[in-house]
Amino acid sequence: xxxxxxxxxxxxxxxxxxxxxxxxxHAHPELGWEEEKSSAWVADALDGAGxxxxxxxxxxxxxxxxxxxxxxxxxxxxxxxxxxPGIGHACGHNIxxxxxxxxxxxxxxxxxxxxxxxxLLGTPAEEVCNAGGKVLMxxxxxxxxxxxxxxxxxxxxxxxxxPIIAAAMFEVFYTGKEAHASAFPERGVNAADxxxxxxxxxxxxxxxxxxxxxxxxxxxxxxxxxNIVPAHTAAKYFVRAETLDKLDSLMPRxxxxxxxxxxxxxxxxxxxxxxxxxxxxxxxxxxxxLYRRNAEALGRALRxxxxxxxxxxxxxxxxSTDMGNVSLKLPxxxxxxxxxxxxxxxxxxxFTRHGVxxxxxxxxxxxxxAMAWTAIDAAADKAVRDRLLSSAG
Length: 393
Ligand SMILES: [Zn+2]
Ligand SMILES: [Zn+2]
Fold this sequence. Notes:
By secondary structure, this protein is α/β, with parallel strands linked by helices. About 40% of the residues lie in helices and about 15% in strands.
């Protein structure tokens, strides 16, 4: 039996337990940095499959590092498992975790004959969008010696190399002064007005930014009562641009909108975060091509053209991930795998419900096998292998 057939056979044997893992994580959604159960279940699954498992690596209690095999080409699969506030696994990270574990188990079963070392990195807190798990694990050495990193993310439809742009998340705090809103308003300094001015300025700024830039946020504190002039307000905002360089030029313009709110009202403003942004994704072209061929061999249709989104413009569908930061350091891929969810899309509660559907469960098997096969192909192709061996992270 060749290595790819061996990997498939091992994955078939693990299929039910991987679906069980996905459903368990889905039923117990945990926010970023709080993924105690999810990370433990991922670690347990790899423990049981003969991996050397370390929990709480890089001083991150919910990060996992598992390793198997001793071949020269070292491939890491990333598993995310954090949820979103209020809407559970609406980004399908339960599926990512099961795909990562499945790919690792399948590839590890043939690692030595294929010339592979396999790592599974359990990477917390992807959704926080500032200093996420992969950003910190990169800094703290978890990717050292790794020649290429891969993960597969669920989406409405399959895409080999989806647009992934840079993003920064920061918080804004205004401080003014309370007063009776009717009797003594002249004694108040209105922190809610400061936010209104900032949001108006951002609205006007939109005319003058690139079509690919994004600015979006929420008010997290808007005031305490309508008869008290709000003295404390807060907001969380994302700024995104195609690249970190473009983000660098956009961020100060958005910050000035928040400063305008303070200037106009006499409030003080404090901005925190945004200092450890997510980078754009550089998809490794050869690994993408291998993944595409393997996914197609499993009968999947990969749609990287905007027309194929079933009414949704997939070319507009740019998200951000800390896998981008990984991709700037070492060859990496981040294909999307379809779970046939349309009209439901990521970050909708309807997408959460699709995360345990038959299509989602099939995506676990297909995504894991396509990724394991991609690792095996990369090790078998001398040109690809030699290039990856010379580019350790
Ligand atoms: Zn998400
Ligand atoms: Zn996600």
